[in-house]
Task: inverse folding
């Protein structure tokens, strides 16, 4: 057999190396985790030169912003703190800089208006069985891949059909419909803060409750101002991982935790919702940590809802959450010390009902939005007299 | 024929076999990884053909000046090509979750980029190998006919296509199919190498072949790992002839995935109840029900009505067996399972039903669009009892109906309203259409209570989710001016495309503009005879898409017959090329004649579609396909001869054919059919061929040797 020359040596080496690399790549991918897949951060970007040429009827000067050099402005409503040059549009799509002044383009022009049961928000400990006048204008400061309302949350105000409902008319409509409360919901109410707070102030004057259904991504200043007229909130704690917040939602965790603490300090009725997305938010350890944080910072009394995920919007290649996962998380959270833990988006689940944290008796049975069993007397358990946290009828 | 020549031709044939099988497997893989709408399917074919065309041009540019052709180099390229086929599928499957967020769908431009770059190495090499083989043969026989290469390639393509469509798809997994389709190429390369190399040949060839086979085998070994889901476990996997079927088990829940999309789950109570009880609540004494495809848990709900007959039609028998195996569908009394295309079943059957319930995906492919057309609803009406109800659903919304979706629902509403006195849309996560000739009742819980039927979801949630205000709000938004959807003019698909683009906040305008500019630049640089090949390539692919579309409308989706249509569109190329090679001296006049014949055949197709419709016998489509491919194959050697037959002419001719086919695929699928309908799409292809007829007919023979370009 002849000796192998240099060319042959390179040929064999190259061939073997490429095969080994292919096998190695196969092996590494076979067990790869997916939380590291794709881009790490899907945060929104400012829309440069996207503001309309002139303001429209449904414009209102921004509630909180500061003017900086060259007619730029900094929006102070949410932690995105968009710095907008004249003609720019904010990440949430609702605010624009018009010649050095910040304007909201979502004032008096809601695109979704409905009268819903309060349980639909979901708020289980706030005047059960009552109806809530619910409204939303466009916009969101997040970019959630599984958004249920992406048609309005990821749209600009002028891109949708809308109603004309300035604050006084909104309050009047709610009263006419017999609603006890007004909910700022569906898209992200933080993005139409100016509209929301004006309605809320009027509603409070007229004896209506204000409910806020939100991702909680708001700065302390505007939140404290809003708390003066707020009665109840459901904050969507999307996960207890900053990485997942950045990857699936385009936001950050800490500002949301700050909001929860502020609401607790301001004694606002609060419920927390977590959507259990398979493969991302179904880690028991993370749920345990989340419960630990809730107990340490908010206490055991605020209801916690685990919602079932269904494929939606861009996150449509995952299976729905298995019901047993939700059941397990509920048991886990109760075991950790959270007193009222619910399972949502699963009809006829035991986790739809309210049980007294002291005597464990059934207080409220829920069949969807119906309450066939109601065992509270005022704000106390009918059986043992324990005070049940919440705002009751 | 010399031994070397024979061995080289065998390599070309084997390359054809392997490349066609790999192309079909690649398309299926992309459909399993990305959203399988018509846009994506067209993008895959387009990218494949364009890259092949570029590879062919590259061969012309770098050989023989920079890389002398030799049989041993051809063998090396063939080994690399075979190994790349497995690596390509692996990369498509595994890099998806590297570049995109796990579980998320992907928009137009990222999909296009992913397709283009993942298949680029393989497609460029496939395009490169074909002319390179000719250059190898011409090292020994300088005037070796390029047409023979074309013929050998066609033999391989036909064999590979038939082998995959009628054998591999039924028997093996994708990596096994790649292994089997690649074996002839490894063997042929081995044979060629052993004939041409004098020294230490086995020392070189055995490791090369072994490494190639090892890569192919590695793919088979790692296939189960690459399919394993991140959540739960894979409890069933099968490649059916229609797509990838997988069942994942996660914490006691079984979910059926078809082509990567979760279609039904064992724990989806609300959808099961809505699907069944909304239509059934409309009927007083239902006895006979037809289901076209199903949802998890629907039989359990149907059982509550004590029906005499439930006919359940599902196209894919593998889906049925999986549904029963994992309890996604229950076996109830009176259930008849029918494995057939739903539309073909309705056309053939004379049964009358009290309710017909469609459970189909969104109409974003030509195949599904057939179930939402004027003609289909007319057929449904004939099979319904006088008070019978038709129900189907579309993707829903929570609180706001966006404009593209409003148009889509309006088009459907106007289409179905043509056949039923009352049509009502029920909002929710899915929007249900209820269609009946008597007025539709909206108080579903009350109706169910009257019937003594208990539900879990509807009883508790209906009144909060489907308020009168929400129902009337949705129905009032229907626009009576939106055009209807029909078989011949699939308007709905246009709206589906708009909705898809709206979801990702993107637009195809940039892509289309770039494509038009590049096509014009290309067209202004090619010769007249190349334009003939370009237009014939475009027309052949375009007419193949038209014929498959029409066949599905008239006969339903019948896998074997559609497989035969695809095969005949390849089969005519071979005899055509053989004949063309003999008559190539006829030059321009032959091209004019065949162009005229192609125009004539397209006119016949147009008239047949317009006047014959579903009365056309199925063999009409087969004869048409064969004749078109015959003419296409015939033109290639003639055009090649007209172009001088040199290396440059060969590569330019192959490129023109491939780039034309790429443009024909894209324009027919995404522009002509959705925007102009079946008849006008055919007319569009006739115009293209007429342009070719004029271009070649006005070719001045004195320019022949000077090689003037088109302008």
Result:
């Amino acid at each position: 057999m002849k000796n192998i020359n240099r060319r042959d040596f390179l040929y064999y080496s190259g061939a073997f190396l490429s095969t080994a690399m292919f096998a190695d790549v196969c092996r590494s991918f076979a067990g790869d985790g997916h939380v590291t897949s794709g881009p790490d951060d899907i945060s929104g970007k400012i829309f440069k030169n996207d503001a309309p040429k002139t303001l429209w009827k449904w414009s209102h000067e921004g509630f909180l912003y500061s003017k900086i050099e060259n007619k730029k402005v900094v929006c102070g409503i949410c932690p995105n703190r968009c710095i907008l040059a004249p003609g720019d549009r904010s990440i949430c799509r609702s605010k624009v800089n018009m010649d050095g002044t910040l304007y909201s383009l979502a004032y008096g022009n809601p695109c979704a208006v409905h009268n819903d049961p309060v349980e639909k928000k979901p708020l289980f400990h706030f005047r059960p069985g009552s109806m809530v006048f619910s409204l939303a204008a466009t916009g969101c400061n997040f970019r959630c891949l599984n958004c249920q309302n992406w048609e309005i949350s990821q749209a600009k105000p002028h891109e949708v059909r809308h109603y004309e409902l300035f604050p006084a008319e909104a309050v009047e409509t709610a009263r006419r419909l017999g609603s006890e409360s007004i909910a700022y919901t569906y898209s992200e109410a933080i993005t139409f803060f100016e509209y929301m707070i004006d309605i809320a102030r009027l509603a409070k004057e007229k004896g209506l409750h204000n409910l806020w259904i939100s991702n909680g991504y708001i700065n302390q200043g505007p939140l404290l101002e809003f708390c003066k007229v707020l009665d109840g909130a459901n904050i969507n704690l999307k996960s207890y991982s900053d990485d997942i917040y950045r990857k699936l939602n385009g936001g950050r965790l800490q500002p949301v935790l700050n909001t929860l603490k502020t609401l607790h300090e301001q004694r606002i009725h609060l419920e927390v919702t977590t959507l259990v997305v398979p493969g991302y938010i179904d880690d028991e350890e993370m749920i345990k940590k989340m419960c630990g944080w809730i107990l340490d910072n908010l206490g055991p009394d605020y209801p916690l809802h685990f919602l079932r995920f269904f494929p939606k919007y861009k996150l449509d290649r995952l299976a729905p959450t298995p019901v047993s996962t939700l059941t397990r998380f509920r048991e886990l959270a109760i075991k950790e010390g959270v007193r009222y833990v619910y399972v949502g988006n699963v009809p006829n689940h035991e986790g739809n009902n309210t049980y007294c944290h002291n005597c464990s008796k059934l207080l409220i049975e829920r069949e969807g939005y119906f309450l066939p069993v109601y065992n509270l007397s005022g704000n106390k358990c009918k059986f043992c007299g324990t005070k049940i946290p919440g705002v009751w009828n | 024929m010399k031994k070397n020549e024979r061995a080289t031709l065998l390599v070309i044939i084997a390359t054809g076999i392997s490349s066609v099988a790999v192309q079909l497997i690649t398309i299926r893989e992309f459909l399993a990884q990305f959203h399988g709408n018509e846009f994506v399917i067209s993008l895959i074919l387009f990218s494949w053909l364009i890259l092949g065309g570029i590879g062919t041009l590259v061969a012309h540019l770098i050989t023989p000046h920079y890389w002398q052709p030799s049989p041993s180099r051809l063998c090396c390229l063939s080994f690399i090509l075979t190994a790349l086929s497995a690596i390509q599928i692996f990369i498509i499957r595994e890099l998806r979750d590297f570049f995109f967020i796990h579980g998320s769908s992907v928009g137009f431009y990222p999909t296009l980029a992913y397709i283009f770059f993942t298949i680029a190495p393989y497609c460029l090499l496939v395009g490169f190998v074909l002319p390179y083989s000719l250059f190898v043969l011409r090292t020994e026989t300088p005037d070796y006919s390029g047409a023979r290469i074309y013929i050998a390639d066609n033999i391989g393509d036909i064999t590979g296509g038939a082998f995959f469509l009628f054998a591999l798809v039924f028997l093996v997994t994708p990596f096994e199919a790649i292994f089997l389709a690649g074996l002839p190429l490894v063997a042929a390369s081995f044979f060629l190498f052993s004939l041409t190399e004098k020294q230490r040949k086995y020392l070189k060839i055995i490791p090369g072949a072994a490494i190639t086979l090892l890569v192919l085998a590695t793919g088979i070994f790692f296939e189960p790992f690459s399919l394993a889901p991140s959540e739960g476990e894979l409890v069933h996997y099968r490649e059916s002839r229609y797509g990838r079927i997988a069942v994942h088990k996660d914490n006691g829940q079984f979910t059926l995935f078809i082509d990567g999309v979760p279609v039904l789950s064992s724990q989806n109570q609300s959808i099961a109840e809505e699907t069944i009880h909304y239509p059934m609540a409309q009927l007083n004494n239902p006895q006979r029900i037809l289901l076209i495809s199903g949802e998890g848990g629907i039989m359990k709900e149907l059982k509550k009505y004590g029906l005499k007959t439930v006919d359940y039609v599902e196209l894919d028998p593998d889906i049925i067996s999986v549904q029963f195996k994992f309890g996604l569908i229950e076996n109830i009394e009176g259930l008849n399972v029918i494995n057939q295309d739903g539309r073909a079943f309705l056309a053939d059957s004379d049964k009358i039903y009290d309710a017909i319930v469609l459970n189909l995906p969104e109409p974003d492919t030509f195949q599904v669009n057939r179930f939402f057309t004027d003609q289909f609803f007319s057929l449904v009406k004939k099979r319904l009892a006088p008070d019978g109800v038709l129900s189907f659903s579309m993707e829903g919304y929570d609180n706001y109906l966006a404009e593209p979706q409003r148009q889509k629902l309006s088009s459907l509403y106007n289409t179905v309203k043509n056949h039923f006195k009352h049509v009502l849309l029920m909002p929710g996560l899915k929007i249900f259409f209820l269609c009946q000739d008597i007025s539709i009742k909206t108080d579903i819980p009350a109706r169910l209570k009257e019937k003594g039927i208990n539900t879990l979801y509807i009883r508790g949630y209906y009144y909060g989710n489907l308020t009168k205000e929400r129902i009337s709000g949705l129905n009032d938004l229907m626009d009576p001016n939106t055009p209807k959807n029909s078989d011949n003019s699939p308007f709905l698909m246009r709206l589906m495309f708009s909705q898809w683009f709206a979801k990702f906040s993107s637009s195809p305008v940039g892509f289309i503009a770039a494509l038009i500019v590049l096509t014009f630049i290309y067209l202004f640089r090619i010769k007249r005879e190349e334009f003939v090949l370009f237009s014939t390539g475009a027309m052949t692919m375009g007419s193949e898409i038209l014929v498959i579309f029409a066949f599905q409308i008239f006969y339903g989706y019948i896998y074997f017959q559609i497989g035969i249509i695809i095969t005949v569109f390849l089969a005519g190329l071979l005899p055509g090329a053989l004949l063309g090679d003999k008559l190539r001296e006829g030059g321009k006049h032959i091209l004019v004649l065949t162009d005229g014949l192609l125009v004539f055949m397209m006119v016949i197709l147009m008239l047949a579609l317009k006047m014959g419709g579903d009365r056309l016998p199925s063999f009409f489509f087969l004869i048409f396909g064969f004749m078109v491919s015959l003419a296409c194959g015939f033109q290639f050697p003639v055009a090649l001869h007209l172009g001088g037959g040199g290396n440059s002419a060969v590569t330019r001719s192959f490129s023109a054919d491939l780039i034309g086919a790429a443009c024909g695929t894209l324009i027919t699928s995404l522009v002509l059919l959705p925007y102009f309908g079946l008849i006008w799409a055919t007319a569009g292809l006739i115009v293209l061929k007429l342009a070719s007829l004029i271009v070649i007919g006005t070719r001045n023979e004195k320019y022949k040797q000077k090689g003037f370009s088109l302008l």
About this structure: Residues 146 and 313 of chain A are 5 Å apart (CA to CA). Chain A has a mean pLDDT of 92.
